[in-house]
Automatic annotation (TrEMBL):
Its cofactor is Mg(2+). InterPro entries: HGPRT, Hxn_phspho_trans, PRTase-like, PRTase_dom. The gene is hpt. It catalyses: GMP + diphosphate = guanine + 5-phospho-alpha-D-ribose 1-diphosphate; IMP + diphosphate = hypoxanthine + 5-phospho-alpha-D-ribose 1-diphosphate. This is Hypoxanthine phosphoribosyltransferase. Its EC number is 2.4.2.8. SUPFAM superfamilies: PRTase-like. It comes from Rhodopirellula bahusiensis. Residues 9-153 form the Phosphoribosyltransferase domain. It is found in: Cytoplasm. Belongs to the purine/pyrimidine phosphoribosyltransferase family. GO terms for molecular function: guanine phosphoribosyltransferase activity; hypoxanthine phosphoribosyltransferase activity; magnesium ion binding; nucleotide binding.
Length: 177
């Protein structure tokens, strides 16, 4: 596996992301929502660096079941807290095709949120992204399949403390396990 972003770069990137979000909201309370499962490591690090009062919730969205290509997006909001009349910040690990955050933002707006913004650790530089770009981005990365710091391949590698690029032989080996 090739390291793309190491632990210390991640630490700096998350701090910078938190500063940008803080200065944008200027102390106003927000409802910060983790897009599960990929955002769980970023989310834990990010919310502890934000200074405004926060309500904290989670929503589940999944479209990469079983591979490196997006399939049908499934959203499960059973565990989500009330977002009506709240300023919501959706936090996700990666903006790739853009489908997940675009559809989730629309779903949260539909639930009656006053505003919906988005923050991601990674934004892929690739053609054919849909919807508005994320409001807050820590790193722009090349169009390669990455794992670690919450990101998975077949539910593996989320625990790695760095962002790595899986080589084709590792993709095959993981799929065989
Ligand atoms: O911009 P997109 O092309 O929509 O891709 C981004 C989404 O894909 C991943 O989720 P995934 O569906 O793999 O579920 P997971 O979070 O449970 O890993 C990732 O965590 C983002 O939510
Ligand atoms: O590059 C990726 N890695 C892991 N999960 C993802 N979901 C969208 N893109 C990616």
């Amino acid at each position: 596996m090739r390291t793309l972003i190491d632990e210390s770069q991640l630490d700096d990137g998350v701090s910078k992301l938190a500063k940008e979000i803080d200065s944008n909201y200027g102390g106003r309370p927000i409802t910060v929502v983790a897009v599960m499962t990929g955002s769980l490591v970023l989310f834990a690090d990010l919310i502890r660096r934000l200074s405004m009062p926060q309500r904290v919730g989670v929503i589940h969205a999944s479209s990469y079941r079983g591979g490196t290509q997006a399939g049908k997006l499934e959203i499960d909001s059973k565990m989500l807290i009330d977002v009506q009349n709240r300023d919501v910040l959706l936090v996700d690990d990666i903006y790739d095709t853009g489908a997940t955050l675009t559809k989730l933002s629309a779903a949260i707006a539909e639930m009656g949120a006053s505003s919906v913004s988005t923050a991601v650790l990674l934004k892929k530089l690739r053609p054919k992204q849909i919807g508005p770009k994320p409001d807050f981005v820590a790193f722009e990365i090349p169009d390669e399949f990455v794992v670690g710091y919450g990101l998975d391949y077949l539910d593996m590698y989320r625990n790695l403390p760095f962002i790595g690029v899986l080589e084709p032989d590792e993709i095959e080996a993981t799929a065989r396990q």
